[in-house]
Amino acid sequence: MKHPLRLFGFCPRCGSNKFKVNDFKSKRCEECGFVLYFNAQAATVAIIQNNKGEILVARRAKEPAKGTLDLPGGFVDSFETGEEGITREVLEETGLRVTDTRYLFSLPNKYVYSGFEEHTLDLFYLCTVHDDSLPTAHDDVAELRWLSPQDINPEDFGLESIHKGVDRFIQSLK
Length: 174
Description:
Layout: E1 19-23, E2 26-29, E3 35-37, E4 41-48, E5 55-60, E6 69-70, E7 73-75, H1 82-94, E8 98-113, E9 116-129, E10 141-147, H2 160-173
Parallel strand pairs: 4-9
Antiparallel strand pairs: 1-2, 2-3, 4-7, 5-6, 5-10, 8-9
């Protein structure tokens, strides 16, 4: 896939078509001097365990990776912390209320949306929820279920960072 900056032909500041590649991660306007940097967007991932030690796993309802396994999460909104973002995303996708978050680790990812490759930095959180009964799937989730860590195959997760993150978390339990 070509670099996403190729899609930006005009300067977002002055509208000039003299918006040229500056280096691998930026374009510069030859008219006004504005430099646009293509940086990773923050996204969050929730690892939620119930009191049996099972992990809440989702099935993706939409592309990318529709039909594959996933974990609750999504993009962090502007002016939102990672903790606020994961709390909101878990509520939107599962209806569960997060009562505590603990940052675990981060992994880079590529998320293709409408043909545009978003580069993300996925922030993984261990989340505690108010009620650990099986929730109802909402938003862009087709199904939710609790799985024992030994029954989880990281290869079944369609997004690369989630696949790697699930594997890393399961390995940490051993």
